Structure formats: C-alpha cells, structure tokens
Amino acid sequence: MKEDVEKIKVFLDSHKVNYQLLEHEAVFTSGQAAKARNAKLEEGAKSMIVRSEGVFYDFILSAAKKLDWNKIKDILNSKSASLADPKEVVEVINCEVGSVPPFGNLYNLRVYCDPSLLENEYLEFNAGLHTVSMRMKSKDWKEIVNPSVVSFAK
C-alpha cells in the first residue's frame, strides 16, 4: 500500500541509505518483476511471510530460489510451518502477496535471510505495491534490517 512505500522511504532515509525508487507496470511474479526492473532474477529479494504455531516470520531469499520447508522447520524448532495465506499477509503487514518488502522488522516480525541473497551487490524488491520497486546495496540492507542469516533456500 502507498503508506508502506513511504514507511520504507522514511526508514531508509533515517539510516542515510542510498536507494533507487522504480515505478513500473504491475508485477505479480519474481520473473515479471525482474523483467520490469531490467535486473537479474538473483538480485530480486523475495519476502515470504511464514506462519508457525501461530507466530509469523519474514523469510527473505533470492527470487531465483525456493524455500526448503525442512530447513525452516528446523530453524523454528517446529513440526509445522507454512506460508501465511493472502488474508493473513494483509493483516500482518498491510501488503498483498507479491508486493511484500523485505523489511519484516518494520512490522515487528523476526527476519531471516538466506546467505545466497547477500552474494549480490544489489537487491531489488517490491516496496509494498505491485507497481513500485526499490534497489539498494545488499550490505546496506543487511546492516539496517539485521536479519538472522541462515541457510533455508534450495
């Protein structure tokens, strides 16, 4: 939602982080987003809201990767974990599936990041809307979000 783009901009500006704001046609998949941004799929940061035992988490990985549910269950020390459904995603972070920014910390969620994402110099991600993306250095993102970096992608 539009207020989420502003929330992210305020957060980045408060940390004096350089970023680019990109407006484009509506995108709903990682492939569409990479094409609209004229970027590599690997640079896309997918933010996946995961539910486990009634608690929500933000798992962030390269758009070129998929979640490994066995690893996620191990990380959370849980027998069950699944993606939050679209209604839960809106309730938890006020964004639609496919537009979730990689800033779970702004929504009081614990953030996990797969180390393969940080191999890229830059990250690109939807900023709360299907029509707005941002690009920033991955080291800056890591510094201000301070995610738990652990392997959970395949």
CATH superfamily: YbaK/aminoacyl-tRNA synthetase-associated domain
- Helices and strands, in order, run as HEHEEHEHEEEHE
Instruction: Estimate the global geometry from the Cα principal axes.
Output: globular
Question: How much helical structure, as a percent, in the residues?
Answer: 25-40%
Strand content: 25-35%
What structural class is derived from the secondary structure elements? alpha/beta
If you consult CATH, what is the topology? YbaK protein
What's the arrangement of secondary structure elements?
Layout: H1 2-14, E1 19-23, H2 30-37, E2 45-52, E3 55-62, H3 69-76, E4 82-83, H4 86-93, E5 110-113, E6 122-129, E7 132-137, H5 138-145, E8 148-149
Parallel strand pairs: 3-5, 5-8
Antiparallel strand pairs: 1-7, 2-3, 2-4, 6-7
Could you write a compact summary of the structure shown?
By secondary structure, this protein is of the alpha/beta class.
Task: Explain what the structure shows.
With 154 residues, this protein is α/β, with parallel strands linked by helices. 29% of the residues lie in helices and 28% in strands. It has helices at residues 2-14, 30-37, 69-76, 86-93, 138-145; strands at 19-23, 45-52, 55-62, 82-83, 110-113, 122-129, 132-137, 148-149. The strands form 2 sheets. A 5-stranded mixed β-sheet has the order 4-2-3-5-8, with helices on one face. Strand 2 (45-52) and strand 3 (55-62) form a beta hairpin. The relative contact order is 0.25.
